Amino acid sequence: MTYQISSKHQFFKSPRFFFLRIDELSKGYPSHIHDYVEIVIVLKGSALHLIDDKKYEITAGDVYVLQGMTSHGFEEASGDFRIANLMYLPDELSFPFHLLQKMPGYQALFVLEPARRIEGEFKSRLRLNAVSLKDLVSKIDQLKEEVELQRTGYESMIQARLLELIVNLSRAYTESETADTGRILCMGEAIAWMEEHYTKPISLPQLAKRAMLSERHFLRLFQKIFASSPIEHILRLRIRHASSLLMKGELSISEVAFASGFKDSNYFSRQFKKIKGVSPKQYARLEAARHSTQ
Q1: Helical spans, DSSP H, in the chain
Q2: Predicted confidence (pLDDT) per residue in 224-244, tens digit
Q3: Which of 89, 225, 237, 247 is 20 to 30 A removed from 101 (C-alpha atoms)?
């Protein structure tokens, strides 16, 4: 039986956006799901991790990410099995996610690997050596201290240390050298490149070449992971960028369109309204009115 844990649980009280647990789980842990992101670090021992009715062997040094609403639990744990769980609510964080998404390692570890796992594969997890794991444990201890002592500015410090940890894990994934991490990292390279260059013309052949996949294979994998085509994804990235420019109120609608990668301002306006529900002009007015009342 799988039970559900909500982000409204007492875990997320102070701070509202983050919770950290270090558990000895020699008897395993029942399957459960939750609506927050969880970074799992195996500190010691080994076990079988149940993810969506599939079993994967995990051991000390393994690091992986569980996105929301993924059923998981542990069984057949060794007597010394110990893990650290870093749980957070992305929407509550003041993170530069647009910068993280430009990192191939972030795309691989936090986006692609969790999605690929659904297909029954778990070979592309990050596995740290003893030295790297020891360094990670020291950073977890710093986070734990901030949560427990709650000194002045602790929420800002927790966000800063969590961001540092995520960047370091993303870098570690990029530097890992197994065949499986290499394959998924190539896909991460393509997605990160898209995040960096979405205001410029991007073609399917360009993306497939960067991912070192055939166009057909890249398109199939992309649609399975993002539930949209690359063209639709690029369109949403451009609309997101246009929204941020409209919020600033410094450019005309045409200038915003061209700065966001659109060659036709009329086409831009149609697509913006289709996604946002209002025209660019209405959006700019609403944002200006909202800021004037703050």
Answers
A1: 97-100, 104-106, 113-117, 130-149, 154-175, 179-197, 204-211, 215-226, 230-248, 253-259, 265-276, 280-292
A2: 888 899 999 999 999 999 999
A3: 247
